[in-house]
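User: Structure please.
Assistant: Input sequence and predicted structure:
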Amino acid sequence: MTVQFTRSGRSWSSALCGSVNTLAHCQDLLLLGCDEGSIYVYNVEGNMLLPTLNIGAPITKTAVSHEYIAVISNVPSLYVWNVKEKKNILKDERLSSFNTDSRTITSLVINKDGNITIGLSDKTTYCYSYSLAAWMVIARNKVDVGWYRELETNSKSTSSSKVLSDLLRSQLEERSTPTDQQVSHLNTVSLMEQAMLVADNLGSLPETRLWLNSLVRYLTLQQDEERLRSLLQRLMSSASNEIYGAEKLELVTELLTIVAGNVHCQRVYSDIKQQLEWAKSRP
């Protein structure tokens, strides 16, 4: 099979071993996945950057970002390569539990650092941790609609490395209104806590603080004093002077300004403020 591409007024052609099932591109790379397992990687000039690869199964999804490429086969299994270094960084990661009668894989995203996220038809989203060698749950359906306004506002005012930005955007687009408010509250808290852990694991400290800030906003909005107190107390009790890349007392002070705006959370505000003032007065 022969394919022809046109970019910026320039055309080029290439011969392929099979038929193209899927393609992905970014500013620097073009990735093709074929029905007999072949994978082709080109730069913007039409030059092949890797030898023709074949993983022995039809390619169903592709993703590319900067120097990283990722493909999913119909097994299904996942492969990730660093094109610049010409090496594989994830091989034959089986995804069978993600592709069942009740749910299927709907999206594959890779960011500039090679971090992989997979979205499923049941609105669950996973991010792969290379250090833990396992999938981390980020998002699930049936969360509280009330938190979106706070999170959207917070995300616009916070500088983020955008590890989870696509997930954040998909959550804002796919929001639901569950009937059981207690379940939705627990799911929402769990989602934010999980997102914090994922961002921290991926080394995205600005985004970790974004989710922390959003969690405090949500707990304050919901007047969940028990969880709010526990969270702030845990930060104050940390043995480290730096938390998520910020000075501990400065971080807690910033979070307290959020709590101060809700009259129903003044007991938590007063208790933590007293601890904060005592900590700042120590030599």
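The CA atoms of residues 58 and 244 lie 42 Å apart.
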